[in-house]
Write a structure and sequence with these properties.
The chain is an alpha+beta fold and 299 residues long. The chain contains six helices and 22 strands. A hairpin with a 4-residue loop joins β18 and β19.
Length: 299
């Protein structure tokens, strides 16, 4: 009986040790790329804090919303998924030094992560479309999609669809493909892809490395100049069209007996001024947190 007791204690200790080894670090911050404008994406340094959890290690260390974390333990991370993956790898209870910039003042702070009690939630991110050069709608990959494709954290974007006469669709890219590299460099974010495309001259060749149904493929395509957008067409009493931006348009016919409006990827249609319905999906990049317990929601 004593021997059984010792065996049971040994098993319990081993399980506890294994659980501790698998525990993921938690600081209590949610971050975004430190890039306010499209022109900054890919050239930025660090990640910006957009939320600090109450009573978390980050709050205890004095971190605030708006702080820019330029490095964790001496390593810099540009993209939120790569940053959070690094935090996940931190052993709970072991302090780590962060390099932080607040209001253009740089300083360092030591933070002691605790064990994460809930899985880090995915973020539901809608799409970003480029109509100017390539006519492609991009989506952000989930962590599961990135792992299944063999990408590193934060790498890769999804080809969600096409707009107009897209040169990429013409040359063999398909909706659902996962874009990993463009001209030999990894891609991380839809905004980064669009910025890199717009820096290329019209007619420039583009080498794309994609994953389709688990297989790696290469596609050569080009960058073209997209057609200019029509902003207003008016035929009094008969037809009225207005498009104040690429992501918003509306039109109506016969005193607006039939009227439709497209905004943020959703199309709202009215018939006889009283019957209405909404269809479509968002095409602008917008992030929405998946609801979770307060201590586990931010990463």
């Amino acid at each position: 009986m004593i021997r059984s007791l010792f065996v049971g204690l040994a098993i319990t200790a081993a399980l506890a040790t294994g659980a501790a080894a698998q525990a993921k670090g938690f600081l209590g911050v949610r971050v975004e790329a430190n890039a306010a404008e499209l022109e900054d994406v890919g050239e930025h340094v660090g990640v910006r804090i957009v939320e600090v959890v109450a009573n978390s290690p980050a709050q205890a260390a004095g971190l605030k919303t708006g702080d820019v974390i330029e490095s964790v333990g001496g390593t810099s991370y540009r993209w939120p998924d790569a940053f959070h993956a690094a935090i996940d790898r931190l052993p709970p209870g072991a302090p780590v030094r962060l390099e932080v910039v607040r209001d253009d003042v740089a300083f360092t702070v030591d933070v002691t992560p605790v064990a994460r009690t809930r899985a880090r939630p995915e973020h539901v991110v809608t799409h970003l479309v480029d109509r100017e050069r390539i006519g492609v709608r991009f989506g952000v990959l989930t962590r599961a999609e990135a792992r299944a494709a063999g990408f590193r954290p934060s790498e890769g974007v999804r080809i969600a669809g096409f707009w107009g006469q897209s040169p990429w669709a013409r040359d063999g890219v398909r909706a659902g493909d996962l874009l990993h590299r463009m001209n030999g460099r990894p891609v991380h974010d839809p905004r980064e892809v669009i910025r890199r495309v717009r820096l290329l001259p019209v007619g420039a060749p583009v080498e794309l490395e994609l994953v389709r149904a688990g297989a790696k493929i290469r596609v050569r395509s080009t960058v073209s100049r997209r057609a200019r957008r029509t902003e207003r067409v008016l035929v009094p009493l008969l037809f009225n069209y207005r498009s104040p931006s690429e992501e918003e348009s509306e039109w109506g016919v016969l005193f607006d007996v039939f009227q439709t409006r497209f905004k943020d990827g959703q199309r709202r249609t009215k018939l006889f001024w009283i019957i209405s319905w909404t269809t479509g999906e968002a095409q602008s990049l917008r992030e929405v947190d998946v609801p979770d317990a307060p201590a586990g929601s931010p990463r």
